[in-house]
Amino acid sequence: MSSKTIIIGVIGADVHAVGNKILDYAFTQAGYEVVNIGVLASQEEFVKAAVETGANAILVSSLYGHGEIDCRGLREKCEEAGIGNILLYVGGNLVVGKKEWEPVKETFMNMGFDRAYPPGTAPEVAIEDLKKDLAQEG
């Protein structure tokens, strides 16, 4: 597999660094060039990193329940930056409180994400999905 570049980070005021480090390690071991922008990352930082590195995907993490607020408009910012077709994944504890996953997933898909993952999803699931999605891109 030729090396593909992905941007990972934790969006908004979220400081959950452990999951971010786990994803960095897992995707690096899977052969991806990982650009980790860390925690407390803004939408603009994700987009800027993707543009600067020619990334193939942006993977957004959020664990503090404000993912919907923090992620709204990210697809539009990608479009404005000329990377409107970039793969966008999001995962974690994306909303406050316990809610059924399917409506939460639908919310994020409607916001322009290609994939959304509930809390506790193993990195291998996203790695396999990314492999499939990138293969479809050619």
UniProtKB/TrEMBL annotation:
| Residue stretches making up the B12-binding domain | 3-138
| Pathway participation | Amino-acid degradation; L-glutamate degradation via mesaconate pathway; acetate and pyruvate from L-glutamate: step 1/4
* InterPro entries named among the record's database cross-references: Cobalamin-bd (IPR006158), Cobalamin-bd_sf (IPR036724), GlmS (IPR006394)
What highest taxon heads this organism's lineage? Answer: Bacteria
EC number in record: 5.4.99.1
Q: Name one GO molecular function term.
A: metal ion binding
- Reaction catalysed by this enzyme: (2S,3S)-3-methyl-L-aspartate = L-glutamate
Q: What does the record give as cofactor? A: adenosylcob(III)alamin
Q: Which GO biological-process labels does this protein carry?
A: anaerobic L-glutamate catabolic process; L-glutamate catabolic process via L-citramalate
List the keywords (alphabetical).
Answer: Cobalamin, Cobalt, Isomerase, Metal-binding
Q: Which residues bind adenosylcob(III)alamin?
A: A13, D14, V15, H16, A17, S61, S62, L63, N93, L94, V95, V96, G97
Quaternary data: Heterotetramer composed of 2 epsilon subunits (GlmE) and 2 sigma subunits (GlmS). GlmE exists as a homodimer and GlmS as a monomer.
Concerning its family, UniProt says:
Belongs to the methylaspartate mutase GlmS subunit family.
Explain the purpose of this protein.
Catalyzes the carbon skeleton rearrangement of L-glutamate to L-threo-3-methylaspartate ((2S,3S)-3-methylaspartate).
User: Any idea what this protein is called?
Assistant: Glutamate mutase sigma subunit
In which organism is this protein found?
Answer: Proteinivorax hydrogeniformans
